[in-house]
Amino acid sequence: MKKISLFFLLITNFLFAQNIEFNVIVKDVLTGLPIEEVTIKALNTNQGFLTNKAGEAVIHLTQESPLKFEHFAYKSYIVKFSELDKKVNEVYLESNVKQLAEVIVTKDHPQEILQKLVDNSLQKITIPINLKVYLREFYKKNDQIVFFNDGLINFQVFGNSKNIKNDILVEQNRSVGILDEDITEELLGYDLNNIIENYYQFKYLGEILTSKAKKNYDFQVVTYPNNENYYMIKVSPLLEANGILSDFAIVYDNTKMIIMEINSMVAANRLEELRQSFLSSNKIFKLEFRNTFQLDNDVYYLANTKEVIGFEKKHKKKSRRIEVKNHMVITNFDKKIFDYTDKNVFKGKSLINKKTQFFNNYWDMESGFLSTKEEKEIIDQLSSIENP
Fold this sequence. Notes:
388 residues, mainly beta, 7 helices, 42% strand, Carboxypeptidase-like regulatory domain-containing protein
């Protein structure tokens, strides 16, 4: 590969990009309450954004563009660029909860439909692709945040759907707080070097695609009020089934037969029943994830993700609750991957041990995911802590 300076490339792109900046706050039209994790897509560019807990997002555009707002519980909404003329723009979404989903009777078993969706999505997923990602992670110990890291990353994805490969190029990153020796990257449950492979090959759906799954889960296909072209497959553990079994909701485009969103979590009541058996070893007490995909003309790609992993482990004869929350927002993409050298490739499993290095406030300027006021205060507090 050509030896192009990654730092020079990033600086050049930053200096010459048009800078249109404003904020949006997304709210429920009836309650006026903020809506978290709304996917915002700039229709004239490849840029993506995500609202935080306060419903806020900072929008940095490279050119004028209308914005499309999407959330599984609300009707999609497009706002013209000319209407986004304030420093802070309020956008209201209409809930689709009042529109009840209807069960659809299908010729094929819903699990068979899901397998067809996975197979077709694998054929349609765009490879090669460069995903420009803002990644952030909060670490909790005994329900208190003790560490934070984030970074701008390029995932260079190549190969094919059966053999996905990727190289990670870290543009900028920061880490604040202190991690005890009992919190190591081996315990986190995910690996940055295979996380895209897992998402792009839909491996997290594996547990509900086995023949045994029909004995443990109930499958239903229902309408999706947010979009008449979309359906949803709901997969729920049967009451008599044992183990850490997740609830799934898979949203798909019924005309193109591709997966648009995957939501999964282990129900609180199921975790509570199993909790006592967790206390003696490193066992999961919280597990959830969400993948959202976008189809932009001929490009089918990952738009944003969330993973939450919680586990209890013993350290020095004391039980500790460790929780990690990971968000990834794809802020831009390109079907062409750029040249780089092997020395630029990040080989680690996590950013937790990578030395802090940044040249601008990327978390406010390029992240696509604005921290709330409370989160910023926590990050500032952690920044003031000196490592012993």
